[in-house]
Design goal:
Structural class: mainly alpha
Largest sheet: 2 strands, parallel
Number of helices: 14
Number of strands: 4
Distance between the termini: 35 Å
Shape: globular
Oligomer: single chain
Radius of gyration: 21 Å
Helix content: 40-55%
């Protein structure tokens, strides 16, 4: 959501001296919709990062501030290639890094829902999941110091005005931009979480084409699958154990750098109770009807 809104408000940002670069080529620009992650994904470190980035997006402007945004910049393997290039700018320009940290159980299930859109995935599990915030934050903090890093919780109740875009602009020192920010017409709900039934189906579709067709049909017909009150596959006890295990592992790093209490920041103790959760049970009649509709539509479009 953040990137698409920033892209839509590029002119407003520009008027306040902030350049939010657009991809070169309209097709790619529309596909990425303001997300600069592709730059990091394909960068191999064989040329200066800024030259490489400029070959993908239009980096040139007269603005004082250049703003790049994408979740890929939180991936340690990718940042290991980019950080040496950024460190060359130390003392020449001011670099600021912003991270939104999400509660571990939300991060795991959200990542799983994204993964099944691209690959055939096994059932969701908490085992062999090595992601921790120390790996994400430590390289940047060690390179540039805590004063160059802003950490915010991905918790709507803690956002400025309850709005992610407003919160980012506020903490980035760009609060003056907030009054002029406009929502993307017709896309007020971007990246809405898929129902468990849709994720369940995506897990079992082996081809990228099939996954795309299913997602396209669901996007156009959001009421074609039953909506659930519950969004988690993991039980409250599984999520409680995961959140506590990961937060305790990360707290030492947070203490060492004076980053605060991670459980308080992420509101880990405010999970829903066991009484508010039921395990996922596929409604085969509804899923079958959905697949028939989706396949019929796909077949009609191929004729």
């Amino acid at each position: 959501m953040l990137q698409s809104v920033l892209r839509y408000n590029r002119k407003g940002l520009l008027s306040h001296g902030v350049h939010y670069p657009e991809y070169r080529g309209l097709r790619l620009a529309n596909k990425m919709n303001g997300n600069h992650s592709l730059i990091g994904k394909v960068y191999e470190g064989q040329q200066p990062f800024w030259d490489f980035a400029d070959s993908r997006v239009n980096m040139e402007s007269d603005c004082e501030t250049l703003l790049l945004s994408g979740e890929v910049f939180s991936r340690p393997a990718i940042m290991r290639k980019i950080l040496p290039e950024l460190m060359k700018l130390s003392g020449k320009t001011e670099l600021q890094f912003f991270y939104y940290l999400r509660r571990y159980d939300q991060l795991l299930e959200s990542g799983h829902a994204q993964a099944v859109k691209r690959i055939k995935n096994s059932a969701l599990t908490t085992t062999d999941w090595g992601m921790n915030f120390r790996d994400v934050l430590a390289p940047v903090i060690n390179a540039f110091g805590t004063e160059a890093v802003t950490i915010r919780p991905y918790v709507p109740t803690q956002w400025t005005g309850g709005n992610l875009v407003f919160d980012f602009l506020d903490h980035a020192g760009l609060s003056k931009v907030i009054p002029s920010v406009a929502s993307v017409p017709g896309r007020e709900r971007i990246n809405t979480r898929l129902p468990r039934s849709c994720t369940f189906l995506l897990e079992r579709i082996p081809t990228i084409e099939g996954k795309r067709a299913l997602l396209q049909f669901f996007t156009e017909n959001p009421d074609s699958l039953p909506r659930e009150k519950h969004s988690f596959f993991l039980s409250p006890s599984e999520r409680y154990d995961l959140n506590n295990q990961k937060s305790e592992a990360d707290q030492g790093f947070f203490d060492a750098y004076g980053l605060g209490d991670i459980k308080t920041m992420l509101e880990i103790d405010k999970m829903d109770s066991a009484e508010e959760w039921t395990p996922f049970e596929p409604d085969w009649d509804a899923l079958t009807a959905f697949l028939i509709q989706a396949l019929s539509k796909a077949a009609s479009e191929e004729r």
